Each structure stands twice: as structure tokens, then as C-alpha cells.
Amino acid sequence: MSIRETTEALEREKLSPHAVLAAESRGRELPVEPCAIRTGFQRDRDRILHCKSFRRLMHKTQVFLSPEGDHYRTRLTHTLEVSQIARTISRGLRLNEDLTEAIALGHDLGHTPFGHAGEEVLNAMCPRGYVHAAQSVRVVERLENGGKGLNLTWEVRDGIRYHSSGHSAATLEGRVVRYADKIAYMNHDIDDAIRAGVLRENDLPFNVRVGLGRSTSERITAFITSLVENSAGDIRMDGACQGLFDELRGFMFSAVYTNPQAKREEGKAKDVIKRLYEYFSQNPGKLPPEYRNILEESDIHQAVCDYLSGMSDRYCIAVHQELFIPKSWSV
Questions:
Q1: 159 to each of 107, 168, 181, how far by Cα in Å?
Q2: 32-36: which pairs have CB atoms within 8 A and are 24 or more residues apart?
Q3: Rounded-to-integer distance, Cα 48 and Cα 80, Å
Q4: DSSP 3-state percent helix, strand, coil across the chain (nearest 5)
Q5: Which among 47, 142, 167, 235 is least surrounded, fewest beta carbons within 10 Å?
């Protein structure tokens, strides 16, 4: 047997009956010759890891816009933390860790510059709306690889599409990522908010500090343990832990995600994206060639959303400066 076939045999032997086996994937839109070493899900993980959209995550905002300091999370470090938490949960449940990792690494590829502030602008301005989870799927299906997409398996694309809200992913691995995403961002955003002076540790709800622990590690461990001990045919926590999870999430939305100090630059960021959206909508010829090509199959709104959502924070600012800020005149 090849290395891949040996791995697939080990999956059949060791994984939970609820896990998705790589050999039983629904496959890709375009069939490809199997790899001798990697399973289909391992191959998807590698395709995401090496794509340009993944690299751009290092310069996209998580919560704090342009923070002063090297230790604040970016969209890339968030993605890596989601992957680690999701893999730990999947390993504990004997689910397919490779599938979980691929979904986790790809879940935010469609996120805009300036975090959810950018998403709010595109959602308001684009007639069809804008949701970053759906855009992440569009990135891997259409925009990456020179317009050919990454040709990922159905299970990975489904997990990416439904990682955020609304409909649940078809696989338990995808539902693990949905929980891991929230566990990661709540806890690392607490850490960043304390670093920024927006929060103090004692500001966290008393029930949370008593029930989950005072440190990031203790809280994450409590959530992971509850998921592993209580999930069977679905992914769930016990009632008490789920209540603390919901209480902490509600607290973070009121204390951090809508905090004027944390969001003081968001108005400027929204104005930047709004002006760029209006400019390129009125001047489609100024779009880069690969985005002008989108006009042949869709409309100007889709092309502009694809272009702007793919920008890093600093590139978005640079384009805005090039278009709207006067340059110094020299002889």
C-alpha cells in the first residue's frame, strides 16, 4: 500500500464512527489523481496553507486597528489559534484531525481588511450583501490560483461556509471549528484588551472567573474539556459550561467589541473602504486585470467586493492614499 492508503486504513481502524474518513469524502468538483503520500484532507490543508490569501491574513486586523506593539493578534494568528483548539477537540473525540485543520486554516480567508468594520461596509454597500464565510468559500472556489480556485473537497468547503452562524456544517469536524473559532477569539481578545488597557482581569464576570478560571489557559481548557466529555452525535458542552460560554461572549460584546476605546479608529477605516468602493464602482477600468475579468461572469459589485475584501489593512490604506491624498510636488 502507498503511504496515503496506509493512513486511510488507520483512519478506518482508529477514528470514531462519527468521523469523516478521507477515503469516503464526497470529493472535488474537478477530479484529481490521488497523492501517494497525503490524504485528500491533508492535501486541502496544504493548498490553503500555501495560498496567497492565507499569507495576507498576517496583515489583516483581528479586533484592534493598527495597534502599537508586536503582541496583538492579527487575523493570521487568530486562525492558527483556532486550528490548535479545533485539532485538540477533534483529537479528543477521535474525529478527523486533518479535515478539522483544513477547515480551520481556511475559515477566514474571505475576511475584509479592518476586521468586522470592513465587513459591515461591504455588506451595506453591495446589493447582494457580504458575509465573510461565503466569501471564504468564493476565495477557494474561484479567486485563488489565478482564478482557478483551490479545488478543495466538499467537506472542507462546507465547513468553511458554515463556520460562523446560521446553518450548521454537515460534519462534526466543521462544527468543532465553529466552537473553536469562538473559544479562540473570546480568549485572545480578552488578552489583547487587557494589554490595551481596555479591560482588567477582574472586570470579567465573577461567575466566569470562578467557573472557568482566571487565565486564558484555564478557560480554554475548561471549554475543550466540556466539549470532549459531552459531544457524541453532535458537538456540545454541558449546560453549566455553555451558560458560562454565553455569559462571557455577551460580556465581550458589551465591554470590548462595542467599546469606544477599542473601536475609536473604526469610523476612519469604514470611510476608507466606502470611498474605495465608490471609486472602483464608478471606475471599473481601474481595477486590476484579474478583477476586471470577473465582470465577464458577474457584475461590478462582485468585482469590487472581491478586490477590496482581499486587501490587507496596509494595502487598503496605500491604495486610498494613492487615489485620494495629494502627493508632494518635486522638480
A1: 8, 8, 12
A2: 32/151, 34/4, 35/4, 36/2, 36/3, 36/4
A3: 12
A4: 65, 0, 35
A5: 167
Say which residues have a Cβ less than 8 Å from residue 269's Cβ, sequence separation at least 6: 65, 113, 114, 117, 118
CA–CA distance, 34 with 38 (Å, rounded to integer): 8
Burial class (CB in 10 A: 0-12, 13-18, 19+), 270: middle
Q: Please check the confidence at residue 257 and state whether its pLDDT lies above 60.
A: yes
Taking the C-alpha atoms of residue 28 and residue 222, their distance in angstroms, rounded to an integer, is 37
What residue has cell string 461567575?
207
For residues 140 and 147, give the distance between their C-alpha atoms in angstroms, rounded to a whole number.
Answer: 9
d(C-alpha 305, C-alpha 97), whole Å: 33
Confidence band, pLDDT 50/70/90 cuts, at residue 267: very high
* 124 vs 47: CA distance, rounded Å: 32
What are the C-alpha distances in Å from 103 to residues 71, 86, 109? 25, 9, 11
Find where cell 484592534 sits.
64
The cell numbers describing 223, all together, are 471549554
pLDDT (tens digit per residue) in 199-246: 999 999 999 999 999 999 999 999 999 999 999 899 999 999 999 999
Residue 1, all three cell numbers: 500500500
CA-wise closest residue to 167 among 191, 143, 133: 133
Task: At 328, list the grid cell.
Answer: 508632494
Calculated CA dihedral for residues 311, 51, 171, 5, nearest 10 degrees? 180
> What are 100-121's pLDDT values in tens digits?
999 999 999 999 999 999 999 9
Maximum distance among all Cα pairs of the chain, rounded to whole angstroms:
74
| Cα gap 219→189, rounded to integer Å | 13
Task: Check: CB of residue 131 under 8 Å from CB of residue 122.
Answer: no
Tell me phi and psi for residue 61, to 5 degrees: -65, 140
